[in-house]
Amino acid sequence: MDPLTWLLIPLATAIMAALWGCCAGRTRRADDWTNVQRYDRLRAALARATASASTTPSVPCR
Predict the structure, then answer these.
(1) What are the mean pLDDT values of the chain's consecutive 10-residue runs (62 residues total)?
(2) d(CA 53, CA 47)
(3) pTM score, two decimals?
(4) d(CA 35, CA 17)
(5) CA distances from 57 to 20, 47, 52, 53, 54 (A)
(6) CB-hemisphere CA count at 13 Å for 16?
């Protein structure tokens, strides 16, 4: 039984490599430039939110 258990390790590795190959080789749905522009807009929005949160006076807890 132990040798069969050890044979499952390479079998599981081969299955996972095949799944990874399918996922990595698929065609992309979005354009890279669109993703970069969306990321830049998100960064700008988060920077504005952080800046406005830091200028808001905090109320001390009583």
Answers:
(1) 87 96 83 80 90 67 60
(2) 10
(3) 0.43
(4) 27
(5) 50, 18, 10, 8, 8
(6) 6
